[in-house]
Amino acid sequence: MNSTEASKSVVRNYLSTRDWSDLSARKALFAEDATWTLIGDLPMSGTWHGHKGIFEDFLGLAFSRIDTATLDLTVTELIAEGDKVVLEWTSKAQVHGGGSYDQHCLAIFTVRDGVIASVREYFDTEHARHALFSA
Question: Phi and psi (nearest 5°) for 60?
Fold first, then answer.
């Protein structure tokens, strides 16, 4: 398998792990020193480091705002070249306390040695601020 197909396979494996409570399966797909950068100025924006930073701090904060049982991710596009994979998707979920989250996302994954080394994610921060962080 060439590097492009191998990189796509790793990201597909990440997407196929639908049980958000099974962190061990997700963590196994990330390098110990991986980073996830969320572009913007939200409380969860910034660069998150390592398994704890990504899965407990960053995703823990994000998922604490929504009912994960209602979370529906739909992949729109998956494009790869070498160790880079561009993923476009929609995320829909019910927000705790009422309302809904309907987001369009794009992320660039870097895959090295069969695991995800970094992610840079972009989405509509105004929608996220309104849906997830308005008091």
Answer: -60, -45
Instruction: For domain 3-133, give the CATH number.
Output: 3.10.450.50
Q: Is 45 helix (H, G, I), strand (E, B) or coil?
A: coil
Residues 29-85 have pLDDT tens digits of 999 999 999 999 998 999 999 999 999 899 888 888 999 889 999 999 999 999 999
The domain limits of the chain are 3-133
Beta bridge partners of 87: 78, 107
Q: Which amino acid is present at 117?
A: A
**For residue 107, what pLDDT is reported?**
98
Within 13 A of 32's CA, how many CA atoms are on the CB side?
A: 0
**Contacts (Cβ under 8 Å, ≥6 apart) of 18:** none
